[in-house]
């Protein structure tokens, strides 16, 4: 089992920045590939970014976030981060951290076995 706890969400003005954190416990963190997803009201959960076990490989969603969001991890702290900049109102959503075993990165939410409870990000115009 893996327990994931997100933090760092909040209310920010358009153009601002936030850094989300996800702390993991219960399994060797460095054996996990990690991902961030988000879900806006009335919409399906969508992939944002993923990172492999070492942090040496990353994968981002389409141009809607690429270049503005950066995923990273610190295996000494069992934590994965999502640095978000140039935020837009369309980025408003609940952001979820997810974990999966294996070395492959995936944008498919069904490939992830463990999920956090989510943290709300609201971007005002």
Which oligomeric state applies?
single chain
Quote the beta fraction.
Answer: over 45%
N-to-C span? 40 Å
What class would the helix/strand composition place it in? Answer: mainly beta
Shape: globular
**Spans of 5+ residues with little confidence (pLDDT < 50)?**
none
Mean pLDDT across every amino acid position: 94
Instruction: Profile the largest sheet.
Output: 7 strands, mixed
Order of helix and strand elements from N to C terminus: EEEEEEEEEEE
Rg to the nearest angstrom?
13 Å
Helical stretch tally: 0
Structure report:
The structure is a single chain. The protein is mainly β and 125 residues long. The protein has strands at residues 3-7, 10-13, 18-25, 32-39, 46-51, 58-60, 69-74, 79-84, 93-101, 114-115, 119-124. The strands form two sheets. Strands 2, 4, 5, 6, 9, 10 and 11 form a seven-stranded mixed beta sheet that branches. A hairpin with a 4-residue loop joins strand 7 (69-74) and strand 8 (79-84). The radius of gyration is 13 Å and the shape is globular. 0% of the residues lie in helices and 50% in strands. The chain contains no helices and eleven strands.
